[in-house]
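Human: You know discrete backbone vocabularies at least as well as I do. Show me how you would write down a chain together with its backbone fold. No explanation is needed for now; the record alone will do.

Assistant:
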Amino acid sequence: MRIQLLDLVTGLAGALDLISPAVAGHHRRVAAIATALGRRLGLGPRDMEDLRLAGLLHDVGAFTLKSRLDALAFDTTDEGHAETGWRLLRQAPGLERAARVVRRHHTRFDEFGDIPEDPRTLFLGNVLNLADRVDVYLRRDRDLATEAAQALRAAAFLSGRSFAPEAVRALQGTAAGSRLDPEFWEDSVKGGVCQGPSPDTALERGQVLAFSETFSHVIDFRSRFTATHSRGVAEVARALAEMDGFSPAQQELVRLAGNLHDLGKLAVPAEILEKPGPLDRAEAEIMRRHAEVGERVLASVPGLEEVAEYGGRHHERPNGRGYPNGLTRDELRRPSLLVAVADVFTAVLEDRPYRPGMTLAQARGLLLSLAEAGDLDRGTVDLLLSRQQLVADIRLQAQDEARQRFAAFAAA
């Protein structure tokens, strides 16, 4: 397996943009604007890659800030999400430098001398900050020329204070009087289209797996009740795959699917994820969409088509009563059945806002009843229960390790 880093990050950014109508397309547009500014500034390939990747993920740390997110208020009043984003991304293969840019994307130009950071990182973060503000300044239901003029005036006013004068001059170069450069304003600002060569950094198999583990924390970070869920599912699914005779390479694909199976939950509001009682019909429908969204996002990344299928179908059921497509056992491949059982086994042992976690004996009884009804694959359930304590220990160890990472994250 060899996955292009940009393809992977672009797909994940698409999931982030689904969390609220207020930010639909925001990450893609900011990346395009920052890339266009970087090109005008004559940045080198390495800086351009870091700027583009950072633009695609710059607000990843803001996705527990529901009230601020809806108004995009965090763009001006909250710098904590930039620090959170850096902490979430810094261990992801290929994102080490981009994560530092994310950390500095709200650092003011007039504060550069007070911060012990590489000057180039500070500058790239400031370019990203300007790109972010341009996207927030514009209201897309109004005349582009009028909105662009207002954005240019605001940037000029803040030049030398919030924004580096060099970056502001690059932005001003996109307009000559009342004439706007269409490549910048129509393509980058309005359309979110990146112009120019794409970075060609690729991740090998082990790096893709490590990246997925990092992003599983991004997914689970949004609710304290699911803070370690994806890691538990991934390791239980991998253990089942090993017990079922899968090759090491196939086991890695199943683990990868487990890490990313709930990617679509980035599109579910936090108040639904943490609701302390049953979901109403509308809320349940929003929650159910996460499987379809996750599969669609992962399938958009070349090389992850199988992973998308294995993880995205974890709520399909052998009897055809699952979702989103009501597939039956004959239409589901073995890895999807393994991930589905791993998901249920892990979930029922966890505390949730509406119930405490089950004991192993209770979980055993539930799995057997679900298998009897055809809601889970009987062969997979029997396989798990044949070594239930071992699988439970694997789950517990994986979730303890994930919990320790979260504790270290919070203390850093």
In short: The radius of gyration is 23 Å. The domain at 2-190 is CATH 1.10.3210.10 (Hypothetical protein af1432). Strands lie at 2-4, 175-176, 179-180, 202-204. The chain has a mean pLDDT of 88.
